[in-house]
Design a protein that fits this description.
- α1 packs parallel to α2.
- The protein has 2 domains: 160 residues, Rossmann fold; 32 residues, no CATH class.
- A hairpin with a 2-residue loop joins β3 and β4.
- It is α/β, with parallel strands linked by helices and 259 residues long.
- It is 44% helix and 11% strand.
- The strands form 2 sheets. Strands 1-2-6-5 form a 4-stranded parallel sheet, with helices on both faces. The chain has a two-stranded antiparallel ribbon with strand order 3-4.
- The protein is globular.
- Bound molecules: thiamine diphosphate and magnesium ion.
- The site of magnesium ion has 6 residues, from β3.
Length: 259
C-alpha cells in the first residue's frame, strides 16, 4: 500500500502487477531483472518490462541489470524512453555511443531503436521483445526515440538550456496527433467518440482531485510506522521522542518553517 505518499508519477497497482519506480534514477532496472529471474525460476509464463529514461542509462543499475539479464537470459524487456533530455543534460552528454540500443550488443542480446512517436512501431517492437522473452529467448533493449515537450517538473525552466526551434520541430511530430491522423486515413477515427473519451477522462481527473483535496493529511506518526513491518529499536526511540513532543509536528503547527 502506498497510502498516497508517492510522487505523482510513481504509481503502482497490484491488480495489474504494476510496481512503482523508486526515486533514485534507474533503480527499477535491477528490480525488474530480479522479478523476471524469480518468475523464470517459478516457471511463470510471464515477462517483466521496465521503463526508464535516457539519463538512467548512465547509472550503474543499468549495467548491473543488463549484464545479469544477458548472462541468465532473464525474461525481461528493457524499454528506454529516449526523450533526449535528463532534466537539463542532453543526450550527447549522457553517452558517446551511436545509440542507446547498441549498448545491448555488449551484454549479448538484441537492442533495437524505434521511432518512439510512432505508436504502432513501439507496439510492434515491444511485442516482439515480449514474445522473445516469453519463449526463452532472453532480454531485449528497445530504445524509443522521442522528445520531452514540456519542462521536467514544475521547478524546471527548459528555456534556459534548449532552443525553441528544437521544441517546435518536435511539436510537428506529436505522436497522439499522428496516430489520430493515421486512424482518420483508415476511416477509423470517430470524433464524437474521441470527444466523449476526453470528457470522461477530464471528469474522472476532476473528481479525483476534488476527492484528494478533501482527504486530511495522514497522522504524522505514520512516517515511522509505515516503513518497517517490525519497527527497529532506533526508529521506535525516534518515534517515542517525536510523539512526546520532542519534535514540532506539522508545518501548520510550527508558525514558520525552521531554517
Ligand atoms: C540517482 C539520482 N540522481 C538524480 C536524480 C534527480 N533526477 C530526477 S529525474 C532526473 C532525470 C532523469 O532523466 P531521464 O532518465 O532521461 O528520464 P526522463 O525524466 O527524461 O524521462 C534526475 C537527474 C534522481 N532522482 N536520482
Ligand atoms: Mg530523458
Amino acid at each position: 500500500m502506498l497510502h498516497g505518499r508517492q510522487m505523482p508519477n510513481h504509481y503502482a497497482l497490484r491488480d495489474i502487477n504494476l510496481v512503482s519506480i523508486s526515486s533514485p534514477v534507474g533503480t527499477q532496472i535491477p528490480h525488474a531483472v530480479g522479478a523476471a529471474w524469480a518468475m523464470k525460476h517459478r516457471g511463470d509464463k510471464a515477462v517483466a518490462i521496465v521503463y526508464f529514461g535516457d539519463g538512467a542509462t548512465s547509472q550503474g543499475d543499468f549495467h548491473v541489470g543488463m549484464n545479469f539479464a544477458g548472462v541468465f537470459k532473464a525474461p525481461v524487456v528493457f524499454l528506454c524512453k529516449n526523450n533526449q533530455w535528463a532534466i537539463s543534460v542532453p543526450l550527447g552528454h549522457q553517452t558517446a555511443s551511436k545509440s542507446l540500443a547498441v549498448k545491448a550488443h555488449a551484454y549479448g542480446f538484441e537492442g533495437v531503436r524505434v521511432d518512439g512517436n510512432d505508436a504502432l512501431a513501439v507496439f510492434a517492437a515491444t511485442k516482439a521483445a515480449a514474445d522473445r522473452a516469453r519463449s526463452g529467448g532472453g532480454p531485449t533493449l528497445v530504445e524509443c526515440l522521442t522528445y520531452r515537450m514540456g519542462p521536467h517538473s514544475s521547478s524546471d525552466d527548459p528555456t534556459r538550456y534548449r532552443k525553441p526551434e528544437e521544441v517546435e520541430l518536435w511539436k510537428q511530430r506529436d505522436p497522439v496527433e499522428r496516430f489520430r491522423r493515421y486512424l482518420e486515413g483508415k476511416g477509423l477515427y470517430d470524433k464524437a467518440w474521441d470527444d466523449a473519451v476526453h470528457k470522461e477522462i477530464d471528469d474522472a481527473i476532476t473528481a479525483a482531485v476534488r476527492h484528494a483535496e478533501k482527504v486530511p493529511a495522514p497522522p504524522s506518526e505514520t512516517v515511522f510506522t509505515d516503513v518497517y513491518a517490525d519497527l527497529p529499536w532506533h526508529i521506535r526511540e525516534q518515534m517515542e521522542e517525536f510523539t512526546k513532543g520532542g519534535f514540532r509536528r506539522r508545518p501548520e503547527d510550527m508558525g514558520e518553517f525552521p531554517l
